[in-house]
Specification:
Layout (H helix, E strand, L loop, with lengths): L1 E5 L3 H10 L9 E5 L2 H11 L3 E4 L8 H11 L4 E6 L4 H9 L2 E6 L4 H49 L4 H12 L7 E8 L5 H7 L3 H16 L8 E5 L6 E6 L6 H16 L5 E3 L3 E2 L4 H13 L10 E3 L14 H13 L2 H16 L6 H23 L4 H5 L17 H27 L1 H12 L6 H8 L3 H12 L3 H16 L7 H7 L5 H12 L3 H9 L1
Parallel strand pairs: 1-2, 1-3, 3-4, 4-5, 9-11
Antiparallel strand pairs: 6-8, 6-9, 6-10, 7-8
């Protein structure tokens, strides 16, 4: 902290320096000036936190200095030390923020008390500024999400516009009075494969950067807002561009957006664009039109990126189904032959490549067909085996794209072959496991966990010695048979604890424990909390 003493009398400056315990107040730099002009030069260079000033000085007096401080260094605190007690001087000191007006000769106790009060004011105001700065940073982080949410809701429910009209007018200067709009949907499904690989774990950063690029184009003319861009929260992979002016030049505006995205990301994205519709009443219709134009674009046409909605265009989807190839794929999987899998996938892809048109709707239909068949086979072959969950496909469809962001049938073919080959490998492994007696024993435990199972009983059931089972089971599963049984029981108990109507004693009996206390002890040792604590934690 820096302090400045301004007085034309050196003995007064020396007295102030002597009387104040500067280090106790965190003041490590002490400056001196003998008049107001010298003080101004020092303050411009060092910007002190605390200023002591006389009122009567040559060149620039204390009154003028306080006015300068008030205008140029308002955060600094001023303590007046004067030999004059005229009311006009005191009033001036109060008006321009003086902490106190101390008369000469200086009272040491009053001086220290005033410095203490001034330092406390400085620290409190600094803390308040810091808090306000943090709040501003937080608001700047929250604000884009807030507006993304508002605009997303307005697209879904345009009738709620009046609720936000005043706020929107203040933030964006948008006042709908017979206004029309066009809406563009920008889909990240067609982002280049290279960009997907680079940013797959940082999608929020991708959205933030893309929206910034779009908004820079839409607001580059300060006198006229062309529109705005926002993340559409009702769909995970979309950005919406709302155009409110220059609607007849929308293609040029969106082409400029495409150029800027390509320059920034070295990738282009497809857009669907609505017709000209009333704003805000037809926002939902505008989104539906833009979405339809995007979904029904021909993905085989590589040059076109902007797709306008055309009401009179007849829609004729490709008449090609995966069902006629399903049985061949199933047999290839059962064969365990990668060559057979490649052959049947190649036959399917040959039919796909013969098409003149492929759109997103058709791709999604094929994906749902494939996913349906695959999940049916997984359920048939693996049942409730934990492996089955890992083998099922994701619920979200991704368009297979090349480095230019275009539909890549070759890439799709490779993905299918890899996926089906892995499924076939898992099936063969499962078949080998089924023939292994240790897995039979594990299955027996999973099916009879609620009974009083002993190692001797299992040995009798499988006609093997207890020692052989213990040794082989641990080699196969990495844990003792008793620990495996306990783990199965505890996992079943955790599911039963989700039912609030079952008592702990009932659950203990249902998973093979006659003694409730012993069950609770085993449960806590395994899970880390008691059954009751686990239940409460799941309910909260």
């Amino acid at each position: 902290m820096i302090a400045l003493i301004v007085d034309d009398e050196k003995h007064v400056r020396d007295a102030i320096k002597l009387l104040v315990p500067w280090s106790e107040f965190g003041i490590d730099t002490l400056l001196e000036a003998q008049d107001g002009e010298e003080a101004v030069r020092l303050m411009q260079e060092h910007r002190p936190n605390l200023v002591f000033t006389d009122m009567m000085m040559p060149l620039m007096d204390g009154k003028e200095l306080m006015v300068w401080l008030h205008d140029q260094l308002p955060a600094a605190k001023t303590i007046v030390i004067s030999g004059h007690e005229e009311f006009e001087l005191v009033r001036h000191a109060v008006k321009y923020g003086g902490v106190d007006y101390i008369l000469k000769p200086i009272d040491a106790e009053q001086l220290v008390e005033t410095v203490s009060r001034a330092v406390q004011l400085l620290e409190r105001e600094q803390a308040e500024r810091q808090q306000q700065q943090e709040r501003n940073i937080e608001m700047n982080q929250i604000k884009p999400v807030y507006w993304d949410t508002i605009w997303s809701n307005l697209v879904s429910e345009p009738k709620t516009f009046d609720k936000y009209a005043k706020e929107i007018a203040g933030e964006f200067g948008i006042i709908p009075q017979g206004q029309h709009c066009r809406l563009a949907v920008l889909s990240l499904d067609t982002i280049s494969g290279k960009l997907k690989d680079s940013f797959w774990s940082q999608w929020d950063l991708v959205y933030f950067s893309l929206i910034n690029v779009c908004n820079e184009v839409l607001t580059e003319k300060r006198s006229e807002r062309v529109g705005l861009a926002f993340r559409y929260w009702n769909n995970d992979n979309e950005i919406v561009l709302l155009l409110l002016s220059r609607l007849e030049q929308a293609d040029a505006v969106l082409q400029h957006v495409q150029t800027c995205i390509a320059n920034t990301f070295q990738s282009s994205l497809d857009m669907g664009v609505s017709s000209k519709l009333p704003f805000p009443d037809a926002l939902r219709q505008a989104y539906a039109e833009a979405k339809q134009a995007l979904r029904r674009r021909n993905l085989l046409v590589k040059e076109q990126r902007i797709h306008e909605y055309k009401e009179d265009t007849a829609y004729a989807p490709a008449q090609l189904s995966m069902s006629e190839h399903a049985e061949g794929i199933r047999l290839a999987l059962r064969s365990g032959s990668e060559e057979q899998i490649r052959k049947i996938v190649g036959t399917w892809m040959e039919a796909v490549r013969s098409l003149q048109t492929i759109d997103s709707e058709q791709l999604e239909l094929w994906w749902h067909e494939y996913n349906g068949y695959k999940n049916r086979w997984v359920n048939e072959w693996f049942g409730d085996n934990p492996t089955s969950d890992r083998l099922r496909d994701e619920s979200h469809f991704h368009v297979p794209t090349d480095d230019a962001g275009r539909l890549a049938v070759d890439l799709w073919e490779q993905q299918l072959i890899r996926s089906l080959t892995e499924l076939s490998r898992q099936l063969l492994q499962s078949q080998r496991q089924d023939s292994n007696v240790m897995f039979e024993i594990a299955r027996y435990i999973r099916n009879h966990y609620h009974q009083d199972i002993s190692l001797q009983e299992i040995a009798n059931h499988f006609y093997l010695s207890r020692e052989y089972i213990s040794r082989k089971f641990k080699q196969e599963f990495g844990e003792n048979l008793s620990d495996y049984l306990s783990g199965v029981r505890i996992e079943k108990a955790k599911l039963l604890l989700l039912n609030p109507h079952l008592r702990i004693a009932q659950i203990a009996a249902m998973v093979g424990y006659d003694d409730e206390k012993y069950f609770s002890k085993v449960f806590k040792k395994t899970v880390g909390v008691s059954p009751n604590e686990y239940r409460k934690g799941r309910e909260s």
